[in-house]
């Protein structure tokens, strides 16, 4: 394969730039021409294609966001949109494509592979960690660390005022950001979409912790359950302790990627290019048990994400 394309799609994630760099540099190493496609599938349909050189990716390994920019492209769900995308690939003679994004972006990649015969490799880039086939997605570690920084600060002021903090993190269907940031910050309670919650039980847990000498409480709630404000209002009706809501919001999607995300980016990007170089397409790369893996992209997107109940129980046992 001599010419490959690369795009970032869906919600951005810290580490996407490091992955772009790894794909471009690996492609150039193998003597390929590499084309960056701006604004995801939208740019592919609108012919927003730029040649990438060695220096196009200088000084970006440490940067948050994505230099190629990104978009959520509904037109990719239509045959008309898909044909426009394929026309652009043909125009530049692009023989293989690397797609960095979450499950929606992978579905676009799956269509290109399955229905139009474009060898495509998916790199899981989303803070949500909601893809079952890989232990971690790119950006999750940094996003959780950003949440931890904010929760640590909240703990300071909540303890001074003996309050309860309700912190909303991202995750519409997947509670992993809440689970990991809850455990790592010492939060007493997490509320996730995968497990129904009982407000009376939450109030009893708060009261029990206060009886055991705690001066504050942190509740981490995933956005998919409900907003922090609404949850705080409901909780306040059942407790005499003052409750304060905080929504971390898009702050958790920005910032310089952590070491873990930069390492994933380097390995995912390099693996994606090695596959295309060998003429292998229609795969998703990931990490399992600390090893870089690849699997059929269609199978990867069809796997249902499971929740780690063992970690949830661990939190229940140690966060009192
Ligand atoms: O998919 C990543 C994500 O950050 C989700 O956690 C969140 O629900 C969503 O994107 C927010 O999307 P937007 O930035 O388009 O509002």
Chain-wise SSE layout:
Blueprint (H helix, E strand, L loop, with lengths): L2 E6 L7 H14 L3 E5 L2 H6 L3 E4 L26 H14 L3 E6 L1 H14 L3 E5 L15 H22 L2 E6 L6 H10 L3 E3 L7 H13 L5 E6 L5 H9 L6 E5 L11 H19 L5 E6 L2 E6 H6 L6 H10 L2
Parallel strand pairs: 1-2, 1-4, 4-5, 5-10, 6-8, 6-9, 7-8
Antiparallel strand pairs: 2-3, 10-11
Helix pairs in contact: 1-9, 5-6, 6-11
The structure holds 6-O-phosphono-beta-D-fructofuranose (F6P).
Note the overall shape.
elongated
Radius of gyration: 21 Å
Describe the sheet with the most strands: 7 strands, mixed
Cα-to-Cα separation, first versus last residue: 57 Å
Query: How are the strands ordered across the major sheet?
Result: 3-2-1-4-5-10-11
Order of helices and strands: EHEHEHEHEHEHEHEHEHEEHH
Helix content: 40-55%
Q: How many runs of DSSP E, i.e. beta strands?
A: 11
Percentage of residues in DSSP E strands: 15-25%
The kinds of small molecule bound in this structure are: 6-O-phosphono-beta-D-fructofuranose
Classify the oligomer. Answer: single chain
Structural class: alpha/beta
Mean pLDDT: 97
**Uncertain residue segments:** none
Count of alpha and pi helical runs: 11
């Amino acid at each position: 394969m001599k010419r490959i394309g690369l795009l970032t799609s869906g919600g951005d994630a810290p580490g996407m730039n490091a992955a772009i760099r790894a794909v471009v540099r690996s492609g150039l190493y193998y003597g390929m021409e590499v084309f960056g496609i701006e604004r995801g599938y939208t740019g592919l349909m609108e012919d927003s294609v730029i040649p990438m050189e060695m220096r196009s990716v200088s000084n970006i390994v440490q940067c948050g966001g994505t230099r190629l920019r990104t978009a959520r492209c509904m037109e990719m769900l239509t045959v008309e949109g898909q044909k426009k995308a394929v026309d652009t690939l043909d125009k530049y003679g692009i023989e293989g494509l690397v797609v960095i994004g979450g499950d929606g972006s992978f579905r676009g990649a799956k269509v290109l592979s399955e229905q139009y015969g474009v060898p495509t490799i998916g790199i899981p880039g989303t803070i949500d960690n909601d893809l079952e086939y890989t232990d971690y997605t790119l950006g999750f570690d940094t996003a959780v660390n950003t949440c931890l920084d904010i929760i640590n600060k909240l703990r300071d002021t909540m303890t001074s005022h003996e309050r309860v903090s309700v912190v909303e993190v991202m995750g519409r269907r997947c509670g992993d950001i809440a689970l990991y940031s809850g455990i790592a910050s010492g939060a007493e309670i997490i509320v996730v979409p995968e497990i129904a919650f009982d407000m009376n039980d939450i109030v009893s847990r708060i009261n029990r912790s206060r009886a055991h000498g705690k001066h504050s409480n942190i509740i981490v709630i995933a956005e998919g359950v409900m907003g922090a404000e609404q949850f705080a209002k409901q909780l306040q009706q059942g407790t005499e302790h003052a409750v304060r809501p905080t929504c971390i919001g898009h702050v958790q999607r920005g910032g310089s990627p952590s070491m873990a995300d930069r390492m994933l980016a380097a390995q995912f990007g390099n693996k994606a290019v090695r596959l295309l170089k060998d003429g292998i397409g229609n795969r998703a790369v990931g990490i399992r048990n600390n090893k870089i893996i690849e699997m059929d992209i269609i199978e990867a997107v069809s796997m249902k994400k499971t929740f780690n109940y063992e970690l949830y129980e661990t939190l229940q046992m140690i966060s009192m």
